[in-house]
């Protein structure tokens, strides 16, 4: 029988004791109440953009502890939205009223407005706001070189203000973003106004940092040397956290316990850091949330999985159980980060929701060579997020906190749909956003079913996406299980299997011409082109290097790429939403570990060409045409 340490036993005992003592989960982040003045200013902006006079629509609010109801009253061709709601939900109830009237906000820079006649036709109607979760919102992953880096952490605050308003208008009430290593006074100055706006609109704001997180230029509280040796680590954490609290007015802190999402520190030291952070934050009534990653191979004989370490912390410490890519908690096959599925994360989430504040933390964009920057428009993000939200809402999980990389290349649809599903009215429909856009739902059903069958269940995603350096250097610890083109060049059977999958998909590929929204139609078209491209590069691999047939198939693949590139350049001209941030450019100065805009690869098709060159030259060096600086990412 294995002997457990005294400290482990005490943590386990206290955790179980807290579970029995508290009649309900300890209070986590206290929901904010929106300012009526701030909502009025936002309403005026909406009406101005719709070309209505500011007096056309008004609102009134009366507190109710029973439910969140709205009534649309008209008098002399003027509209009043009468709200009877809980104080923390009145603003979301109001914005639901605007949606009932026909105002939609699918993107921070897109507003769809009704006609005055359509608004007045809804006089004397009633509606109810029924939130799926107490806390619902978005983590803006500003470790990636996206628009929100420019908006919140650089000098383009308009981007930040628009995002904050988009959150409020879509019923969201929590947000955070990663802080990067920068002068604290500059961080404070840049965040002050957008954070104040968010709080005035009823949104709790947080900052995401590491206790000792080393990767991707993240802001951290403990230097690497102290984290490794333990010398003064707790003292430095408290000191630096107090300085951060004095500089930035946030409501909650999201913290990483390890030095990266794949590497742990001393387990008891990590628990000490978590408690030190909780106690320090508690002095100013701020809350702590700990990220729980899905990485593997970090296990201790006493404490088990390092990622699940927060289960032994104080019950007021909240958790963010994370899943990656378009996989969900109930998916049967999840070949990422060494997992078979996410069942252990699911069990951990459902267990801990009864002990501590628990916000599920999935994502709608992974980025690095998996989706937006291939580019692939992956509709299973819609499906997986809707399924998980439905099941977890039914289980009364407190929060849903979606990780997002950005809104370019059509990925605003993924985030908007998640935001819409915070309202039970939409019945967790993966096509809720498409329905509101007036899209042909039977058309999209064919596309979604096709991708679920081929990309996810038949695992074409491992063929269509590209390996990162970790995938190419290691055959046992890959981000996503896959065959590299180098492995395919040496294994005819693996090559045959991939060609068979690609040919099956090509035989069933739906026609995207039925899509009404040009932006989305283009992204599905490009995704289909990548299927053709991958098929041609693998056909080339069947033939000897420098042979005529290999050359011919590579030329055909290049032709598909060049055609797709023209589509994407036209796409950029038509649908680039943040030209001031140079997000499609090779040079996009920013403080992240990435010197290029996060969708640069989506217009250059750099990795399509890289795959062609590898096959053509029969050379598979991981650094060929690689634009990611591995050292910058690590350090």
CATH topology category name of the largest domain: TIM Barrel
In the CATH hierarchy, what is the architecture of the largest domain at level 2?
Alpha-Beta Barrel
Helix content: 40-55%
Assembly state (oligomeric): single chain
Strand content: 5-15%
In words, what does this structure look like?
By secondary structure, the chain is an alpha/beta fold. The chain folds into three domains: 36-128; 132-437, TIM Barrel (Alpha-Beta Barrel), CATH 3.20.20; 443-634, no CATH class. It is built from 24 helices and 16 strands. It is globular, with a radius of gyration of 25 Å. The protein starts with 5 loop residues before the first helix and ends with a helix.
Topology of this structure?
Elements lengths: L5 H16 L14 H14 L7 E7 L5 E7 L2 E8 L4 H12 L2 E4 L2 E3 L3 H5 L5 E3 L6 E6 L6 H6 L4 H13 L4 E5 L5 H17 L3 E7 L13 H6 L3 H15 L4 E5 L10 H16 L4 E6 L6 E2 L3 E2 L12 E4 L21 H10 L6 E2 L19 H15 L4 E6 L7 H9 L11 H5 L4 H17 L3 H4 L4 H5 L11 H6 L1 H17 L9 H24 L6 H28 L24 H5 L1 H12 L12 H5 L1
Parallel strand pairs: 1-3, 7-8, 7-16, 8-9, 9-10, 10-11, 11-14, 15-16
Antiparallel strand pairs: 2-3, 2-6, 4-5, 12-13
Helix pairs in contact: 6-7, 9-10, 19-20, 20-21, 20-23, 21-23
């Amino acid at each position: 029988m294995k002997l457990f340490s005294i400290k482990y036993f005490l943590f386990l005992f206290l955790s179980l004791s807290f579970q029995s003592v508290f009649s309900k989960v300890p209070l986590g982040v206290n929901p904010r109440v929106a300012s009526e003045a701030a909502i009025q200013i936002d309403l005026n902006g909406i009406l101005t953009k719709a070309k209505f006079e500011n007096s056309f629509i008004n609102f009134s609010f009366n507190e109710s502890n029973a439910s969140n109801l709205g009534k649309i009253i008209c008098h002399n061709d003027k509209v009043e939205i009468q709200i009877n709601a809980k104080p923390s939900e009145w603003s979301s109830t109001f914005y639901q009223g605007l949606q009932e009237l026909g105002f939609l906000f699918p993107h921070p820079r897109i507003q769809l407005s009704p006609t005055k006649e359509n608004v007045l036709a809804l006089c004397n109607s009633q509606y109810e706001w029924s939130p799926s979760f107490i806390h619902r919102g978005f983590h803006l992953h500003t470790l990636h070189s996206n628009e929100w880096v420019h908006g919140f952490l650089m000098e383009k605050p308009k981007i930040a203000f628009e995002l904050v308003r988009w959150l409020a208008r879509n019923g969201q009430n929590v947000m955070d973003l990663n802080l990067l290593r920068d002068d604290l006074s500059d961080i404070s100055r840049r965040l002050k106004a957008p954070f104040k706006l968010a709080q005035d609109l009823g949104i709790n704001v947080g900052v995401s940092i590491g206790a000792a997180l080393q990767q991707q230029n993240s802001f951290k509280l403990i230097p690497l040397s102290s984290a490794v040796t333990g010398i003064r680590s707790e003292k430095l954490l408290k000191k630096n956290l107090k300085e951060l609290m004095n500089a930035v007015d946030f409501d909650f802190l999201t913290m990483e316990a390890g030095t990266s999402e794949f590497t742990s520190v001393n387990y008891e030291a990590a628990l000490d850091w978590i408690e030190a952070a909780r106690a320090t934050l508690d002095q100013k009534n701020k809350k702590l949330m700990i990220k729980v990653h899905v990485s593997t191979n970090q296990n201790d004989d006493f404490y088990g999985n390092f990622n699940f370490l927060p289960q032994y912390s104080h019950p007021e410490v909240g958790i963010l159980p994370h899943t990656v890519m378009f996989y969900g908690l109930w998916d049967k096959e999840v070949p990422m980060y060494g997992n078979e599925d996410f069942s252990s994360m699911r069990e951990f989430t459902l267990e801990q929701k009864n002990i501590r504040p628990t916000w599920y933390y999935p994502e709608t964009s992974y980025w690095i060579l998996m989706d937006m920057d291939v580019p692939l428009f992956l509709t299973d993000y819609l499906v997986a997020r809707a399924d998980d939200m439905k099941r977890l809402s039914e289980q009364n999980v407190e929060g849903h906190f979606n990780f997002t990389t950005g809104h370019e290349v059509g990925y605003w649809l993924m985030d908007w749909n998640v935001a819409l599903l915070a309202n039970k009215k939409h019945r967790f429909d993966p096509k809720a956003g498409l329905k509101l856009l007036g899209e042909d739902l039977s058309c999209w059903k064919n596309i979604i079913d096709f991708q679920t069958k081929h990309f996810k269940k038949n695992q074409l995603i491992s063929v269509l996406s590209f390996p990162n350096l970790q995938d190419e250097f290691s055959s046992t610890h890959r981000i996503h299980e896959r065959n590299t083109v180098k492995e395919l060049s040496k294994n005819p059977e693996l090559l045959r299997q991939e060609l068979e999958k690609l040919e099956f998909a090509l035989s069933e590929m739906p026609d995207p011409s039925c899509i009404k929204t040009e932006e989305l139609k283009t992204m599905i078209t490009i995704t289909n082109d990548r299927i053709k491209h991958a098929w041609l590069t693998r056909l080339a691999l069947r033939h000897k290097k420098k042979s005529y047939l290999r050359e011919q198939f590579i030329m055909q693949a290049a032709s598909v790429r060049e055609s797709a590139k023209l589509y994407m350049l036209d796409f950029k001209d038509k649908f680039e939403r943040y030209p001031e941030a140079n997000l499609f450019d090779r040079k996009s100065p920013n403080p992240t570990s990435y010197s290029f805009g996060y969708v640069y690869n989506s217009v250059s098709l750099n990795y399509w060409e890289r795959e062609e060159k590898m096959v053509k030259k029969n050379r598979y060096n991981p650094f060929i045409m690689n634009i990611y600086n591995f050292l910058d990412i690590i350090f």
